[in-house]
Amino acid sequence: MNYGVLVEKKPSFQKPHISLNWLKTFDVAARVNSFKLAADELCITPSAVSQQIKELERALGIPLFNRKSQGLYLNEAGQIYWQEIRTALSIIQSATDKIRPNKYQYKLKISLIPPIANHFIFPNLACFNKQHPDIKLIFEVNEKLVDLNTSDVDVAIRYSSSLGKEGDYEKLTPVLVQPVCNHILAQTLDLSANPHNIVNAPLIHMSNTPSMWTDFLKVMGLEKALSVNDIYVNDYQAAMSAVLSQGVAITLYSLEKSYIKQHNLVNFPSLQLEFGAIYAVTAKGRLQETAIEHFITWLKSLLKSSD
Hints:
41% of the residues lie in helices and 21% in strands. It is α/β, with parallel strands linked by helices. It folds into 3 domains: 20-99, Orthogonal Bundle (Arc Repressor Mutant, subunit A), CATH 1.10.10; 106-173 and 277-305, D-Maltodextrin-Binding Protein, domain 2, CATH 3.40.190; 176-273, D-Maltodextrin-Binding Protein, domain 2 (3-Layer(aba) Sandwich), CATH 3.40.190.
């Protein structure tokens, strides 16, 4: 003890906390030279990437990027730091992989209709894998009915205007349907100005939903007799291929916006109708299983973001 003596306390130096998440974000941003591209890869927002980089630079007390109107580039300090960090992150990942007994804790086999697979699942699958590295997804893409009690399918994602009583169901999103056709047919029948003229067009029928046109026209207050010019295909995917050159098809418009735009098809908003929904279907008692819940929650967020 010191009596009557003033002892000056030296300030203790505390090393700044560096988050591993910041380092992972920095590694990706440095590799792609873009906060937006880094956000896409990491499945977060560009503002979240920017904020994490700012926190890292604040903790280090030095900027790591040159932010120019032409783009984003590592400065000299950033280049040095990145070389070290990427090596360290690789070592951490390698060590983790070596001791992890089984990469996948869960495996899900999912039966999907093609629009959901092609426009939502596959373009965003990398994000799901990053968010849920312990879940292995196996896909079966078709429109066939699945017996979830006897098959190895865990979840079926299906469009339906009415559901049976077997199994558990969760509604993912309502579906807006619209007729679509190619530009030549639209011009020939003046469909853009008079969309009700579709009753004079060859209709594309699907054998797996034979009453769809009849039900649709009835709701719209239109009548059309069957015509020898009508076209019959086996399923929805075939109808979407046929409509590029033949007839008018009913499309699941809220799921097919990108396809319609890509192929320059003509759609008819005045004939739009909420008709059915996309459902997740499981065997009884399985809808609340952890992996299934994670997948359904993720898919619902994708479908909602497309509204």
